[in-house]
Amino acid sequence: MVNDGYANVRCVDNCAVVVEQMSAKYGALGGLTFGRDDARTLESVADGSVDCVVDKGTLDAVLCGEDSREGSAQLLAAALRVLKKKGVLLIVSHSKARAALIPPGAWKVATHDVAAPALDDAKPATTHYVYACTKIA
Ligand SMILES: C[S@@+](CC[C@H](N)C(=O)[O-])C[C@H]1O[C@@H](n2cnc3c(N)ncnc32)[C@H](O)[C@@H]1O
Fold first, then answer.
1. Which of 52, 91, 96, 122 is 20 to 30 A from 130 in CA distance terms?
2. Using CA atoms, how far apart are residues 53 and 133, in angstroms rounded to an integer?
3. Rounded to the nearest whole angstrom, what is the distance from the C-alpha of residue 35 to the centroid of ligand 1?
4. pTM, entire model
């Protein structure tokens, strides 16, 4: 994103090792800050302060954990809280069923299928799903 001109990109994960490794790998790019935070609360991010939230695999991970339904609702509520009006939450997921989790009153959702190349020749190419969720109010 930074290479495409986006500024003030904050990168969070709830795993300290991930934060440390990503910071070591990408910190020199500039324009990025790294920190440990829970996507279900986003305590390090102020209300109505960001234009876009990008979730790549985190909602999927939360849905694999304990209290997954509650966790997914919390993650979506946290994204809604930190976004400016008309801000966008981009969810990249393995599942084509995520739209059902997104409360319709708060978001306008467009779903896009994205071809995901095979990781090696032995495995077929697959599809990932991107949900572009615009904050309505
Ligand atoms: C499938 S990986 C995706 C990692 C990265 N976004 C990517 O695309 O390569 C899921 C990540 O979500 C993180 N994670 C799981 N639950 C989380 C939570 N409640 N808050 C923040 N990060 C979480 C995991 O530590 C893991 O790094």
1. 122
2. 10
3. 13
4. 0.94
